[in-house]
Amino acid sequence: MNILVTATPFCEDSKEPIKLLKKHNLNFIFYSKDINTETKLINLLKDKDIVIAGLENYSEKVLKKSKKLKLISRVGIGLDNIDLKAAKKYKVSVTNTPDGPTAAVVEFTIGLIFSSLRLIHKSYLNILNSNWTRETGFRIENCIIGVIGVGRTGSGVVNLLNKLGVKKILVNDINYNNIKFKKNTFKTTKKKIYRQADIISLHIPYTKKTHKLISYKELKMFKKNSILINTSRGGIVDEKALYSALKNKKLFSAAMDVFLNEPYKGQLKKLKNCLLTSHMASMSKDCRIKMETEATEAAIRFINKKKLKNYLGKIEL
After folding, report:
1. In the CATH hierarchy, which fold is given to the domain comprising 2-100+285-303?
2. Mean pLDDT, residues 40-50
3. Sequence-separated (6 or more) residues with CB below 8 Å from residue 129
4. Strands 144-148 and 274-276
């Protein structure tokens, strides 16, 4: 079987995935450049059976044209770049690596919260511009924090917030999976989180229902001097609405690691009270190695007709 690796970076910190592929005598090639058109991806996949995938877009057109493709093994957790209905239609199996990035995203989220509370990034930018000013912010212990989505990552954020001494945490999810929360953590509606929380952190997938979940209407409900954190998926936050709220000082600050279109080139770049990072929440060395290895192992299991972990498709070899 022929394998294409499009996930980038890949094997920068460990050669274990390559060793696994070579150990099983598999044919594989790496493609590390941006894949920004369907035509380019279709051409790359024309003779490939398996792709160890990154964030490129697997649309119905791509899947229909990729006649040999049998498995998309996603390095990462998000699947909004894969048309799962089309994958089922064209008998392409799909797996992901949801456990690998969790710890890294949790820690990164907490880092964004601290920077947004104290405007650390703004002070840095000011100094670069020879502007010596001291920013006055808030302490995390005195904040009410809202977490929307308490799956692997969201619940991890809640646990770490508890250890940091946060006195009140509000949570919302469509399925709490029998999670037992501490006495300072309360299940509530999204609207109550918008109105009561000083900090709101998003940990939900991007779907039709969550598209622009946070837009003008929702931002109007936010408390003055509140903070929005998004390490989940671009498209959940209406970027134009967020720009307006930050510019007009409705919000104290925001931190965005994900965007509807990446690389991001929009108006938020003009604002010092918005911390922007390049979809890097999962990019710790240990978590990246784990994701790459798990995605490679999934490809090998598929070839050997073994049961797949984190299987999201409907057709197996």
Report:
1. Rossmann fold (3.40.50)
2. 97
3. none
4. unpaired
